[in-house]
Amino acid sequence: MLTKDSTVLIPFPDGMPVPASTLVPAAFVQVSPGTTDQGSVIISEKTLVGSSPTVKTQPPNVSSAQEGSIFSSESDGQNNEKNSALHVPEKDLPLSFPDGGFGWAVVFGAFMIQFCCWGFNFSWGVFQQYYVENNVFPGATLSQISWSGGISTASVFLTCPFQTSMVSRFGLRPIIASGILISGSGMILASFAKTVPELYLTQGLLYGFGAGMALFTSVAIPVQWFDKKRGLASGITVAGSGIGGATLASLNRYLISKAGYKWALRTMGISSITIVCSILFCIRTRIPPRTRGGPLLDVAMFKDRGFTIMYLMGMLVTFGYLIPVFLLPNFVVDLGMKPEVGSSLVSAFAGVNAISRILLGFVADRYGPLNVLILSSVFSGLACLILWMNTHGLAMAIIFVVVYGSNAGGFNSLFPVVAADVIGVEKLAAAVGLLYSGNFFGNLLGTPLASAIIAASGGSYTGTMVFAGSAPILGACLLLIIRFRDEKRIFVRM
Question: Less CB within 10 Å around the terminal CB: N or C of the chain?
Answer without folding.
Answer: N
